[in-house]
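Deliverable D4.2, example record:
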Amino acid sequence: ASIASRYDGGEGVERLLAAQAAAVDAAVRTAWAACVPADAGLDLLATGGYGRGEQYPQSDVDLLVIGSADAQQANEAALGVFFAALWDLGLKPGSAVRSFADCAQAAREDVSTLTALIEARLLAGSMTALDGLEDALRVDGLWPAAEYFEAKRGEWRGRHARYNDTANNLEPNLKEGPGGLRDLHTLTWLARRIYRVPGLEALVPLGLLGPDEEATLKRDWRTIARLR
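Output generated by the structure prediction step:
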């Protein structure tokens, strides 16, 4: 209710999204602490859009539990209670429970999984979990730059085709349609995976994006994000 009031008051969309993510973080961490023992040997990460903090009202809450097979098995019941609690709170958790090796295998099989994992953010557990995940995703042959680029371009073309390759639809899809949020996300993912930079801003000093282009993309993102 507080965030909705701030939206109506014209507050910037970056601050609203951060507040939404923080509110979800608080609920998820409280549920985790109540359901999963502190010594379980498990770490909880946010992934995908939730991981990067771009959390809209009614968005899914994408979560990854990292732990060994033994830790997963020993805490299976506790994890079940945790995820059920999130549903009871009115959240929509998208969940995966994996080891580091499982993450690498899932990423190898599906480029979208890799993309979600490179935006991971720690919610509970040890900071070494992020280091371990990053190491797991750096194995030789796991979506080299050229293959990753082509795979994401393929997704891009497929999305645009579903909306007749135009943004000028009667009811344009703000997320998936041409010129929508997913196009801007894709540019950021390519920057992070191929050039190892945190975002579009870092492409400017590399000469890959003009300052005016970066400013235009950021301005248009704010417009579409606020509408969504």
